[in-house]
Amino acid sequence: MRPEAEGDSEGEESEYFPTEEEEEEEDDEVEGAEADLSGDGTDYELKPLPKGGKRQKKVPVQEIDDDFFPSSGEEAEAASVGEGGGGGRKVGRYRDDGDEDYYKQRLSPKMPRTLSLHEITDLLETDDSIEASAIVIQPPENATAPVSDEESGDEEGGTINNLPGSLLHTAAYLIQDGSDAESDSDDPSYAPKDDSPDEVPSTFTVQQPPPSRRRKMTKILCKWKKADLTVQPVAGRVTAPPNDFFTVMRTPTEILELFLDDEVIELIVKYSNLYACSKGVHLGLTSSEFKCFLGIIFLSGYVSVPRRRMFWEQRTDVHNVLVSAAMRRDRFETIFSNLHVADNANLDPVDKFSKLRPLISKLNERCMKFVPNETYFSFDEFMVPYFGRHGCKQFIRGKPIRFGYKFWCGATCLGYICWFQPYQGKNPNTKHEEYGVGASLVLQFSEALTEAHPGQYHFVFNNFFTSIALLDKLSSMGHQATGTVRKDHIDKVPLESDVALKKKERGTFDYRIDGKGNIVCRWNDNSVVTVASSGAGIHPLCLVSRYSQKLKKKIQVQQPNMIKVYNQFMGGVGRADENIDKYRASIRGKKWYSSPLLFCFELVLQNAWQLHKTYDEKPVDFLEFRRRVVCHYLETHGHPPEPGQKGRPQKRNIDSRYDGINHVIVKQGKQTRCAECHKNTTFRCEKCDVALHVKCSVDYHTE
């Protein structure tokens, strides 16, 4: 601590300001390379002079042994290490004797200060010239426990994006790799290397960083002119599938098993049995039994009951003979509670959907393999309903499904989904991150499509994804794109404003083209919409029918060709969403992954129907296609209960028992227990379907 000066009291802050004479004396002292400011023999290291700035004050250097940097468990307190230990690493920082503000004002207003961990990470993200090997963090203040040196988390598995606030605001120091002094001499935060023969990384206090800013693409300034885009349409896929690809596959089940083949089924069976074994349950699931289980899941999409156990009830209003004869109720519950598609012991801690990743990867391969021969592909989001708690759960206002998981999907214009990925926030493994979240996903989809089927394609997407940089990138890959665009995604295009276009006649439009083959058009319809494209222009113009509120009749409105292309090919993901939502399985689980897992099965069933419509001469609708798959799975792979096995007795309808209508006592072929006196009888009530003596009929049917 700094020695207390006269007039200072405990708890008061120093307000000392140096005079001009004292500042001149300090400048004279700086000229000495071995100046001793503290009088205790401490060496000082002179910071290099930054460009266009004032000379920095000398900073004390403390020797630190190599053992100061432990792998875990030791405190990173650079100031507390004793002197000596030659050959150790050097820490350049101002001398902290208790009053930090005093020394900042006493030495220089440009004096380097200790930064927080959050500021250092922002500096590293914004300045690529700084190369660091490690960050030393001082122990944070623990406000919730008396222990102050408690570790904040796992040092091996944690990430910089998941640190608590107390750790982000604590003091930290940057360890920089040893480098050439001449190349880094212009950096104001550079600390020169020691002359010792052993080169070790140097620790230094970083200068005040510039304001934090996001890493963005460099804005491309283009010269826009009013002209139409003339471009030839892309060729599409290079190699088309053979015409006899589906000639031997006629049944809906055979088309579905193109996606759910033996490899995928064995994956599910393997990890389900493994998970059940870890809980001490002998599941013994087989491929045939899983297909029977999947048939019940598909059946619940068009035969919905409030509780899934009602499928096995014996009461005539809900009893389902096909389900109860195929699988026992308790067996279905056991399989559903142990259903898994990954090994819980080998999950990726970074991937939030690692429990589903093996299945998603295999289904993506098969969906991409059997994609129809198309040129135009749409890209959009897909919501899977979920109302529980999970970090990836989304809320989107105004959508039909507001709560649930978001999936990014690439599809054909008719709704065949050929690529899908779940949204999980920021992912360190994301490719093309510099283009933004939406554009990076489109580029990943285009790369996967081109890798599976080489060719040139036209992609259509909405304003969440569209930007001029994305159009340029796709053009460099040989593709074309069209999409609605937001105002902040196009840089100063000289188009008429929305207000000006709104005042003009309906169907009015304005457009501009840049020098790289991109055109932007703003069109006045019900509202003003802006579309950017690299594969479609204004002409040929077409006429569309619109209802005029002023004239009270339908009128013809001009529409640019690029608007027509967008409307024609954009709705692929929406069509798939509509098809799946019509007959979505009503059986759901309480675990967070049950909804996206069942969505994967629904997706491949919808894709199988799309292939059936494409290649079959007499296609059926989606409901009939689904029913044929269900009947085949339950009738072929079902296991009827063994003779003699009886379930619990079902409750009788007490309302019809006492109505006094049509209770006829008839003869039955064998003796059974009377429902009233519990003695053997050969008679029964035909309406109530219970054994009953003639003499007991009145008592039984009277309340």
TrEMBL record:
Biased composition range(s): Acidic residues: 1-34, 148-157
Biased composition annotated in UniProt, kind: Basic and acidic residues: 93-104
Matches recorded under InterPro entries: PGBD, PiggyBac_TE-derived
Domain PiggyBac transposable element-derived protein: 251-609
Pfam families on file: DDE_Tnp_1_7
UniProt region (Disordered), positions on chain: 1-107, 136-163, 179-215
UniProt-listed PANTHER family: DDE_TNP_1_7 DOMAIN-CONTAINING PROTEIN, PIGGYBAC TRANSPOSABLE ELEMENT-DERIVED PROTEIN 2-RELATED
Protein name: PiggyBac transposable element derived 3
